[in-house]
Amino acid sequence: MRPDASLISLFVRPLNQLRIPYMVTDGVASVVYGEPRFTRDIDLVIALRPSDARRFADAWPAGEFYIPPVEVIEEESGRTAHGHFNLLHHQTAMRADVYLPGSDALNVWAFAHTVTRRVASDEVLLAP
Q1: How many domains does the chain have?
Q2: Residue-wise pLDDT tens digits, 82-119
Q3: What is the enclosing helix (H) or strand (E) of 110?
Q4: Looking at residue 71, which CATH number applies to its domain?
Q5: Domain containing 82: what range?
Q6: Which long-range contacts link 12-15 to residues 24+ away (Cβ below 8 Å)?
Q7: CA 26, 80, 83, 69 torsion: positive or negative?
């Protein structure tokens, strides 16, 4: 079973283009690994630095997506733990839950062990 390719193209493709480290977790990762599951959102852990907030925000067209203000992205990405925000595609109501790894040891380990899989025409980095 494959995850909805539009989730990948809407939310993962821009991260690949920005070359910002990320990993897909939860439901979409489960589907790629072969566990059937229905999901209309994507959970992402993104190693985003506050200095990347502006170019990150600019990667999603404002008329098509809800994206928090750059100041919020800067603040959340600067947290040492529990940073979080959402992205929303207006037309489809598809959502990305974005979690920032902070200094969490599990996330450090997971980023060092991400698994790359192809979904449709995109390479996707998955949590191990």
Answers
A1: 1
A2: 999 999 999 988 899 999 998 889 999 999 999 998 88
A3: helix 105-112
A4: 3.10.450
A5: 7-126
A6: 12/42, 12/44, 12/122, 12/124, 13/122, 14/59, 14/60, 15/44, 15/46, 15/59
A7: negative
